[in-house]
Write a structure and sequence with these properties.
- 6% of the residues are buried.
- The protein is 32% helix and 33% strand.
- The N and C termini lie far apart (100 Å).
- A 3-stranded antiparallel beta sheet has the order 3-4-5.
- The protein folds into 2 domains: 48 residues, no CATH class; 101 residues, no CATH class.
- The chain is of the alpha+beta class.
- The radius of gyration is 32 Å and the shape is elongated.
């Protein structure tokens, strides 16, 4: 056996595990042993060589696990959004907050003077029609023109009935803000 124990022969066998099994301290072979022309306990069956126990294999495995964990942490920290909120204060502006799975928060604030309107837009995405809420920003040079369209709830993608409720609330606040800003 050249210094190998029975357990290392069974564990390092390159063929499928279904072809060998250990029973009561001895090994039983199926058609694989006869196909190779040797028994399972003879040295070097089917081109098998003893496993290399050098540290390079474990270092590669450790590096692969580390890279995978770093990728997962990066995904949770920068990509996976758990919650999105929209806060409108009629005299100040609109605040959009995205909370990531890692606990990180990203906040965007738009002054009310820059907001032209809030609308529900529709788009074709992956062979279906989706609806999303957008904030239309005024052009600083020409106030009656739109300079930018800012989508809201990009990750959550709420249904149309939810968007309609949010839209109506936004329109009430914007109408109240316009009424107070035009009155002396």
């Amino acid at each position: 056996m050249r210094g190998l124990s029975r357990t290392s022969v069974a564990a390092a066998w390159p063929c499928s595990a279904a072809t060998t099994r250990r029973s009561a301290g001895s090994f039983a072979s199926t058609a694989l042993g006869s196909r190779c022309g040797r028994s399972l306990l003879s040295p070097a069956p089917c081109g098998w060589r003893p496993t290399d126990s050098s540290p390079s294999g474990s270092m590669i495995l450790s590096a692969a696990i580390s890279i995978t964990l770093l990728g997962l942490l990066g995904y949770l920290h920068f990509v996976k959004i758990d919650q999105e909120t929209l806060l409108i204060i009629d005299s100040l502006g609109i605040q959009m907050t995205s909370s990531y799975a890692s606990g990180k928060e990203s906040t965007t604030f738009i002054e009310m003077g820059k907001v032209k309107d809030v609308v529900i837009n529709e788009a074709i995405y992956m062979q279906k029609v989706i609806y999303y809420l957008c904030i239309l920003l005024k052009d600083p040079v020409e106030p009656h023109m739109i300079s930018q369209v800012v989508p809201v709830f990009q990750s959550a993608k709420p249904r149309l009935d939810c968007l309609i409720e949010v839209y109506r609330s936004c329109q009430e606040i914007l109408a109240h803000q316009k009424a107070t800003s035009t009155s002396p």
